[in-house]
Structures are given as structure tokens and as C-alpha cells.
Specification:
14 helices; 18% strand
Length: 411
């Protein structure tokens, strides 16, 4: 089963539970458009290399497509289609006026010089320019892309259109229209969702412990913001390894160490553990913030956390969901928990459209309010339909998409 078909399993459960119209279901089950492009780049050695890139627009039912662009050697068409589908649902759950999109280039960016990376980035925008724009499809950063790459993309698109286009892309540097509060936004959403779950479980944050898998942007901010809330962070990890300390870490200090050493591994006072052990620690909250397919049928029975707040996209397989639900573990799904990033991207888009920029306090306040409301809405649906949080989130998303499709006369 490919990842796109796997991603549809909870969607189809939601379709069945809410008795969604067959026509509406057929529309949601298929992407509107997927583009594959070839990007020639003259390398520093004088040779020309051709890279493959993708942009998938799963849906524009609720508004322009929205979603990141990732640079990774394992990017595939199925992956991009799946991520675009998740973005459609993520935006609908949050109540944002967006559809879902996603893009990617098959490349290991660490093997490129700065000049080669810029040439690849500008070449990609040249190839997809006809289908993107602030009212069509709004890209953003994703794996191995950042504010600098977004700046090159904005500059290239502005050259193509002949006018300054900050609203065409989000995740930019502040000096060219980026939003305050954007860097921490995805991690903040993971934490806000988990804090709402703690309220339901009647557990004070100061009595809770957590393990965070991944220490990139999402994982590091998740860990830091949990720490700020009084949650004891006992385990952290990055691509090089995992560390554990039952007394808890100060993630800000771990971040300083990792910046100097290149990894969290070896942090003073920590004990090395395996990834398998990190995922099955006896903690209150597990926050998988690394890659997809981490919690599977092979290890789900050993998971001891009371709450899983998904910072990564698709970290839990459908088979694992069944096991976790039987164990009474509350899984806050990715399309709800990691929606903080796209929520603040929406705020950035608004600020660009009106050239009216907000304070960081205003951004955080509005993000928290939207995410708390989304969590409460999804949790209410779990009670109404007697389903888990993932299926409930899809029911919420489908309800909003279905209403828009009816009004637009799409079926």
C-alpha cells in the first residue's frame, strides 16, 4: 500500500461515519492537479544537471491551495500528493480559507553550493509559476527549506510577474514580509493541543512528563514550549541519536549545546537511548516531531504515553491507531496538532495582503484561540460519533468541505 492510499484509511472511516455523499467523497479522494517538472541547473563544475520537482494541488474548494516545498532525496510523487491531501484537511479543521497543496524537489541540498541551491530554487519557481500565486497556491517552507529559500522564491516570482509579490509565499524573513511568531508556530500548536488534552485528563502540566522525537524547528520549539509550561522534558532526539534524563532537560540549553556540537547526542548528564526506547517511554506526552511512519503495529502495543501530540506529518500508521485507541491513549492527529504552522502562515498572508503587520503577542493570542477552538470542536465530534480523534478531525474537515461543495454546486 502506498502512502497516499494509507492516508485515506481514516478519511474513509470518517466518510462512512458521517454518511458523506458519494460525489463529495469522490472529489475529496482525488487531487485536483499534480505537476511534475524538470529543472536544469548549471553546476559549479560546468556540467548541467536536471532535477525533478513536483507541485500537487489537492483542493481549492475552500480557497487557494496552501502548503510547503521540501528538498529531499526521497521526495516522490505519492509523498507530495499525500502531503497536499493532509494540508487540505489541516486547513479545513482549523477553519482557514485555504485548500491543500505541497511541493518538493528530489535533491540532497547538503550536496549543493549556495549558488547551485539558489539556481535550483529559482528554476523551480520558473517551472511552476503558471499555477501559483497569492490567489491560486501559496507555498511555504518545509523539510530542508527555510526563510532564505522563500526569499529567493519570492524574488523570482516577483520578477516573473513584474511586481512585488510578498503574499505569494509565507515563511519569509521579517524584512520581506514575514510574520512574527512564525518560527515557533508549529511547535506551539503541538503544545497547545497537548495542554488541552491534559485538561481533559485532569493532569496539571507541572505533573506531566514528555518525550520529543526530533529536534529540528518543530521538535525544538515543542520541547522549549513544553518546558515553559512546566512540563518535564525527559527525552529528546535528532537524526544522530536520542538522549534521556529522568530529571528533565532544559531544552534551551540543549539547543545551545546542539548548535556547537551538531547534535543533542552527548549532552552532559544525559543517557543515550534507542529510538525504539524513546517512543515507548513511560511519559505523559509523546510528541513525534520527526518523520512519518514512526508508530506502527510493531511498536504501538509498547507505547506507554497517555497522550500523543503529532508534530510530524503521518507519524502513526492506521494499524497503530487501532492498537493505541484500544489502550485508551489519546492521539491528537497531525492535521489538528501541527496546524499551528499553517495558521500563522495564514496570518502572514493576511498581513501581506493588507501591508499591516501585527505584534508577536497578537499573533500568538490569535493562534492559541484558533487552535483551542479547533481542538474543542474535534473532541466534541469524538463524543458525537464515538470515534477516535483522528477520524473526528476528518469528520470536521469533511463537513466544512462538503458544505462549500454544495454551495458551489460541485456535485
Amino acid at each position: 500500500m502506498d502512502i497516499f492510499e494509507m492516508a485515506k484509511i481514516p478519511l474513509n472511516k470518517a466518510i462512512k461515519a458521517m454518511k458523506l455523499n458519494e460525489g463529495a467523497a469522490n472529489i475529496i479522494n482525488n487531487p485536483e492537479r499534480t505537476l511534475e517538472v524538470s529543472i536544469p541547473v548549471k553546476m559549479d563544475n560546468g556540467k548541467t544537471k536536471v532535477f525533478t520537482g513536483y507541485r500537487s494541488q489537492h483542493s481549492t474548494i475552500l480557497g487557494p491551495a496552501k502548503g510547503g516545498i521540501r528538498y529531499h532525496q526521497n521526495v516522490s510523487l505519492d509523498e507530495v500528493k499525500t502531503l497536499a491531501f493532509w494540508m487540505t484537511c489541516k486547513c479545513a479543521v482549523a477553519g482557514l480559507p485555504y485548500g491543500g497543496g505541497k511541493g518538493g524537489i528530489i535533491v540532497d541540498p547538503s550536496e549543493l553550493s549556495q549558488r547551485e541551491l539558489e539556481a535550483l530554487t529559482r528554476g523551480f519557481i520558473d517551472k511552476i509559476a503558471l499555477i501559483i500565486g497569492e490567489k491560486r497556491d501559496i507555498p511555504a517552507p518545509d523539510m530542508n527549506t527555510n526563510a532564505q529559500i522563500m526569499g529567493w522564491m519570492m524574488d523570482e516570482y516577483s520578477k516573473i510577474t513584474g511586481q512585488y509579490e510578498p503574499g505569494f509565499i509565507t515563511g519569509k524573513a521579517i524584512c520581506v514580509g514575514g510574520s512574527l511568531g512564525r518560527t515557533a508556530a508549529t511547535g506551539r500548536g503541538v503544545v497547545v493541543a497537548a495542554l488541552e488534552a491534559l485538561k481533559i485528563k485532569k493532569i496539571a502540566p507541572q505533573k506531566a512528563t514528555c518525550a520529543v522525537q526530533g529536534f529540528g524547528n518543530v521538535g525544538s520549539w515543542t520541547a522549549k514550549l513544553f518546558y515553559d509550561e512546566g512540563v518535564k522534558v525527559v527525552a529528546l532526539s535528532d537524526i544522530k541519536g536520542n538522549i534521556y534524563c529522568p530529571e528533565g532537560f532544559n531544552p534551551y540549553k540543549v539547543e545551545e549545546y546542539a548548535a556547537k556540537k551538531g547534535s543533542v547526542v552527548g549532552y552532559p548528564g544525559s543517557k543515550p537511548i534507542t529510538n525504539k526506547k524513546l517512543l515507548t517511554l513511560d511519559v505523559t506526552i509523546l510528541a513525534p516531531c520527526a518523520m512519518e511512519l514512526q508508530i506502527t503495529a510493531a511498536n504501538a502495543a509498547s507505547v506507554k504515553a497517555k497522550i500523543i501530540s503529532e508534530g510530524a506529518n503521518g507519524p502513526t500508521t492506521p494499524d497503530a491507531d487501532i492498537i493505541l485507541d484500544k489502550k485508551g491513549i489519546m492521539v491528537i492527529p497531525d492535521i489538528l496538532a501541527n496546524g499551528g504552522g499553517v495558521t500563522v502562515s495564514y496570518f502572514e498572508w493576511i498581513q501581506n495582503l493588507y501591508r499591516n503587520f501585527w505584534s508577536e503577542e497578537k499573533v500568538i493570542e490569535r493562534q492559541n484561540a484558533l487552535m483551542r477552538a479547533a481542538f474543542k470542536n474535534v473532541f466534541a465530534v469524538t463524543k458525537k460519533y464515538k470515534v477516535d480523534m483522528r477520524v473526528a478531525a476528518y469528520i470536521v474537515a469533511l463537513g466544512r468541505l462538503d458544505e462549500a461543495m454544495k454551495i458551489r454546486g460541485m456535485y
